[in-house]
Every structure is written in C-alpha cells, then in structure tokens.
Amino acid sequence: MTTEPRWLTDVTVLAIHAQQIERFGGAHGGRGQHVVLFALARPQQRWNYDASADTADLTALYLVGLSQAQGFVDGNKRTGLACAPVFLALNGAALHVDGSELYALTVRVATNQTDDVQVAAYIRQRLA
What we know:
With about 130 residues, the chain is mainly α.
C-alpha cells in the first residue's frame, strides 16, 4: 500500500454503532472512549510501522479490534463487522462474501478462535 488509506474516525464508528443498535436492538453507550480509540489506532500503527501491511491487514485489525475490545455496552461484534466493509469502501475495495459467513467469522474473532492474521488472509481471498 503506497498512499495512506482513508481511516475510520471515532465519529464514524460511533455513528455505525448507533445505527447497529437502532436496527438490531441493544443498549446505546460505551465503556470508555479510550477503548474505541485504541481499537481505531491499531490499523494506523500497523500502516505506519509495517510497509508490508495491505488493505486486508488493516481491515482485519478494525474487525478484530472493535469486536474484541468491548468498547460498547452492546453491539461490539456488529460494529466491528459493519466497520470492515465501510473501511474497504472508503479505500476503493469491496468484500465478496455471504453475510452469514462473515458473521460466523466475527463470532470466531469475538470468542478468540481466530486472530487478525487469519482474518486478513480470509479477507484477502475475497477482495474485489
């Protein structure tokens, strides 16, 4: 990746979270803004310090970071899942995968059955 990606902002992630709660239910609110900010910083740090990091790596860090960080009272997996295709779209890419398959991947992430390296490989194989 040669040019800096367009990053997700905390405002965008908070809006995505609110949308997920309104659409599917759950409680609004977070457990501390620092938790979400830390999850958002992971892809940027990777890009800054790892020249081999590609879009799939960065997308995986968003999905894994937001799903596992538990920065929200409810909807952490949904928010991580929803942020992945938004980040890809911001950077001119799309993920071609069935929604239920992507949800199953997110559940594996949230239960520590897979990590960001495996998620990145999964995403990389399905990018358009």
